């Protein structure tokens, strides 16, 4: 499966799992929780970063841009 599609599916998965997906901090916590426990297709931090969902501080601008396309976050 294409990396961009996997990244979007992961974000969508986390939106569905998050109690407050409209809040960036809450959604980021859910994304970290899912990555740390490999809840999405067995993928952890490294595998998700390879798809374009970097959860480290230096990657957050790109991840935030992707999330803002897919989530109900207030802009």
Computed structural class: mainly alpha
Count of individual helical segments? 4
Shape: globular
Binned, the helix content reads: 55-70%
Describe, in short, the structure shown.
The chain is mainly alpha-helical and 75 residues long. The protein is built from 4 helices and no strands. The longest helix is centred in the N-terminal third of the chain and has 15 residues, at 3-17.
Description:
The chain is built from four helices and no strands. The radius of gyration is 11 Å and the shape is globular. Helix content is 61%, strand content 0%. It has helices at residues 3-17, 24-36, 45-51, 60-70. The model has no long low-confidence stretch (mean pLDDT 92). Helix 1 (3-17) packs across helix 2 (24-36). It has one domain (3-70).
Entry keywords:
75 residues, mainly alpha, 4 helices, 61% helix
Secondary structure blueprint with pairings:
Layout lengths: L2 H15 L6 H13 L8 H7 L8 H11 L5
Helix pairs in contact: 1-2
